[in-house]
Amino acid sequence: MNKSRQVVIRNLQRIIEEKGLNQAQLAKELKVSKGFISMLFNGKRNFSQNVLEQLAEVLDVRISDLTKHQSINSSEYVIHVRGKATSGIAKEAISDWIIEMNDFTRLSNSFQEEC
């Protein structure tokens, strides 16, 4: 599964949880089958532009809320990684954290420079 699809799935899961919905309710709102929603969440179906537009409308969010990579938004979080990551999942997770921390640091630094 590609990273873009993973980002949309994570954002969609977060948004429906925040809205107090589940996959069955989302399917009903979209007028699609529960199986279709399940395939989206499992990465077996792609998120077409049309599907993203429908999701955004039903969930009352922008498409960018579904597609943007969420980053850490507080300087209170510091991640220390020691030792080696042996599994592919652990390596990928650590790599994602490092990217997020680097992005957060760059944004934080540029914001501080502007102020």
Automatic annotation (TrEMBL):
| Domain annotation HTH cro/C1-type: ranges | 12-66
Q: Which domain of life is it from?
A: Bacteria
| Entry protein name | Helix-turn-helix transcriptional regulator
User: Which SUPFAM superfamilies does UniProt cross-reference here?
Assistant: lambda repressor-like DNA-binding domains
Q: Which InterPro entries match?
A: Cro/C1-type_HTH, Lambda_DNA-bd_dom_sf, TransReg_Diox_bact_type
Q: Which PANTHER family match?
A: HTH-TYPE TRANSCRIPTIONAL REGULATOR (PTHR46797), METHYLPHOSPHONATE SYNTHASE (PTHR46797:SF1)
Question: Which Pfam families does its entry note?
Answer: HTH_3
Looking up SMART domains in the UniProt record yields: HTH_XRE
Q: Which UniProt keywords apply?
A: DNA-binding
The beginning of the lineage is: Bacteria, Bacillati, Bacillota, Bacilli, Lactobacillales
